[in-house]
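Morning F.,

Quick status update on the modeling queue. The single chain you submitted on Monday has been processed. Sequence for confirmation:
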Amino acid sequence: MAFKIHIEGNKFYIDDLEGELLRYEGLAKDVLSRTKTPTSTDFGFTNVNNWSNTRTISFSEIDLTGAAYTDLASFNEWLESNLGNSNGGGSGSGASSFSGWIDYNDSSPLVSLSADTWVDIPNNGAGSFSNRSPLPLAGGITELINTLTGALVFSDFKIGDYAYIRHDFSVVPDTNNATLEFRYFVGQTGQEYPLNISIPRLDRGSGIPYQETGLFFIYMGDENTRLGGARLQVRLSTTGTLSNNGMVINYNIY
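Structure tokens below.
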């Protein structure tokens, strides 16, 4: 295998020079790189917006012809300077950061929604498309959701760490022109705070699925957030049903 890894303008590219794979591309600021150690020669790349998988490439597979880097050390420096994050860097003497991802595909049964009632979105992580970055997960992460409830779990994080969550669920309302509210309900019991996401009115009719996807950022700014985690919740103005495709979680640990 031979790959060309480069940036043109504000986009990051991985080109397979032997033509066996499609080009990977994305905004450089949205691409995360991951290695097991700062001296590792294997690199995983994930786009927090578009890629559902991480491509792992060995430095020995990279064509250096015309590249902005010449060896492993300068490649690490180039990644740290141009991508969203990588675990070879950080700031200050001896600092390091780690990134990884888990895709929790859900296989829970349909959820019945009562009108004007907040309902937790389940996620058992048992769907056939569940996946995660190669074990062991970077930074000592074990799990990022409670598969019994679907709630996000941040207890393995430290203050200053953060996660990007791509949610993906569908709602079928029983009444025309229903309204749907969606939020991350964050924090410990009695100290929760809502992070609300606007959703357009469901105005294409009743009895049909409305898919809602999006990317959301949660920062570990305090112990309430870190220890309490977050529940994904919806409130529909009418009765209906919900099915959850799942969520992909990218995380960065310092």
